[in-house]
Write a structure and sequence with these properties.
about 50% helix; alpha+beta; about 170 residues; 2 domains; Aspartate Aminotransferase, domain 1; 6-stranded antiparallel beta sheet
């Protein structure tokens, strides 16, 4: 089924009247299946996409998500002004001295920051308590305000970790 079919279907529903269309929209399994299918197709397109820049990555997201990711991006760029912005593993990433310091990515109901190692999660234990932190990932719900200051502090912490691991006098 195509988008044209969905639009025609919506027009038919609309022509039947508002009260009837509300009932049909709430109980209509066909419409739900079509929306799920289009969501799956969009997710597949994003998974196959080869983003060349962070701008492209953000532009490929739905409007509300793109706005959130722009705030995340700005927080990281402000915290790491010398970082090189790249795409790595199909996600926006920020490199310092040739090493990726932090990544972010958008998902259906949240956005994530990576990596969140044991030292980072311990240092920010109280501040991260209300977020889902698991297996090196911090998940922030899209439905909540972006914790810009926290994201900036997390980025700076990751940069310090990377600098501490660096070999003195060697630059990549």
């Amino acid at each position: 089924m195509s988008r044209d079919f969905l639009l025609a279907y919506d027009n038919l529903i609309a022509s039947l009247g508002i009260q009837l269309s509300l009932i049909i929209l709430l109980k209509d399994p066909l419409r739900g299946r079509l929306r799920d299918r289009f969501a799956q197709e969009r997710a597949l397109r994003l998974a196959k996409a080869q983003f060349k820049s962070v701008d492209e990555y953000i532009a490929a997201q739905p409007d509300g998500v793109a706005a959130v990711l722009a705030l995340v991006r700005n927080a990281i760029r402000k915290a790491l002004p010398r970082a090189e912005e790249v795409i790595s593993y199909k996600m926006p990433a920020y490199k310092l001295r040739g090493e990726v310091v932090i990544y972010f990515a958008a998902w259906k109901r949240h956005y994530s920051l990576y990596p969140a190692g044991a030292s980072l999660t311990a240092a920010f234990k109280n501040e991260l308590a209300s977020y889902n932190v698991d297996k090196g990932t911090i998940r922030f719900p899209l439905s909540e305000p972006v914790p810009v200051k926290l994201i900036g502090r997390l980025a700076k912490f990751r940069a310090k970790e990377a600098a501490d691991r660096a070999i003195p006098g060697v630059t990549l």
